[in-house]
Amino acid sequence: MAKSQRKLNFALVFGAIFFSGTNWAQSNCLFKNPLCFYNSDVLSYIQVLHKHQDYKSIAPFFYGPYPAALGHAKFVERLANCDFGFEMKRVGIKETSKTTWSITYQRTIIGTSENFKVDCALINDTCRVFLDEAAWKRIFQPKSIGK
Question: What is the mean predicted confidence (pLDDT) over 82-86?
Fold first, then answer.
């Protein structure tokens, strides 16, 4: 009886250590690479925020000439007015350096599938999507809806 109790205690302690270590590792990498956004990826996480109309929370996950030229308030307004509700999934990722990635997504709009790529970089301990005018069109104005 004492031996089985020790085994049970060992299993409980090991399980607690393992799961607390997993939570620590997840919280330690949160937002620090494109695949570490609450069991999602960077663009899928941004899409969830968009669906919840939390545009001010979306803006910090972008960097580059497009948001810089518009300024924060106008960029948030543009995010609020863009169509980003299409079905989308990540189909590939490539690490281009230790702090930059290229991610390929596939979206389906009205039965038409198309692939597009986004570039991400780790800036100030947060993974951000690069956005110039071409990237804005690629992400938010898909070819399949004719914009």
Answer: 83
